[in-house]
């Protein structure tokens, strides 16, 4: 089993933890990770964009000028796509962009992303993460102690003080064990996880 260091909130190493090889040492599947990211982005699209085709634009029922004898190109309607104010050729219409991935594919993609973080030494385990009050300064201090900038912070339970302390930081996102996803794991430089959250991940995804 792979071992990673455990740090406290002051950034000092206080021990080590063994990680489950079935989750944190799998064969990395780049294709599945890519599919998972594409799926998440596609599923988040509203799909509400809409434009008018030439059949839907108002007006243009009369031929603008006669077919021959003017020296100009023949035109049938001022609502043709080449006219200003005309219709759009292949106008976008409301549609659903979402698609599904198999559960096994989703799980394999997540394990690949977690393994990649461990291999890159960007999977940082904290013995605990708790604040007595809501203060952004507290979260900044912890991340500075760990020498981490852009980070995904994973906690086992929804600790209100931790979540609110990180909310105003543009390069920090908090997530619970059940809401971590491949897109966030790849987007953020480091993954900061509490020791309790590591145990929960191993319990949920083993």
Automatic annotation (TrEMBL):
GO function terms (MF aspect): rRNA binding; structural constituent of ribosome
Region named Disordered: 55-78
BP term (GO), one: translation
Superkingdom to which the source organism belongs: Bacteria
Keyword Hydrolase: no
Gene3D superfamilies in the record: 3.40.1370.10
Presence of keyword Transport: no
InterPro entries: Ribosomal_uL4, Ribosomal_uL4-like, Ribosomal_uL4_dom_sf
Compositionally biased region (Basic residues): 60-71
Keywords noted in UniProt: Ribonucleoprotein, Ribosomal protein, RNA-binding, rRNA-binding
GO CC list: ribonucleoprotein complex; ribosome
Family under the similarity heading: Belongs to the universal ribosomal protein uL4 family.
Function as written in the Swiss-Prot or TrEMBL entry: One of the primary rRNA binding proteins, this protein initially binds near the 5'-end of the 23S rRNA. It is important during the early stages of 50S assembly. It makes multiple contacts with different domains of the 23S rRNA in the assembled 50S subunit and ribosome. Forms part of the polypeptide exit tunnel.
UniProt xrefs under HAMAP family: Ribosomal_uL4_B
Subunit note: Part of the 50S ribosomal subunit.
Name listed for the protein in its UniProt record: Large ribosomal subunit protein uL4
